[in-house]
Amino acid sequence: MNIQIRKAKKDDMKHVIKLINELAVFEREPNAVVISSDDLIKDGFGDSPLFSCFVATVNDEISGMCLGYPRYSTWKGPTMHLEDLIVQKK
Known about the structure:
Oligomer: single chain
Distance between the termini: 12 Å
Shape: globular
Helix content: 10-25%
Strand order of the largest sheet: 1-2-3-4
Number of helices: 2
């Protein structure tokens, strides 16, 4: 089994949105997701990205992701907030 973690690319967002929707179903909120893969591309890959995303691949197939965004701590300065960490059960 070949497992890799890498920075997400625009082309990965169609898989990332599937994982986000799977999480929403798991959380019993299947209709809560209102964004699309196009929104993720627009918001995460422009001149000033609003978030960072990494994907986990197993044998070159995306099976997990993490998404975070920068924030500022009054105690520690610049930091990152981890919004979601999603891994498919295989």
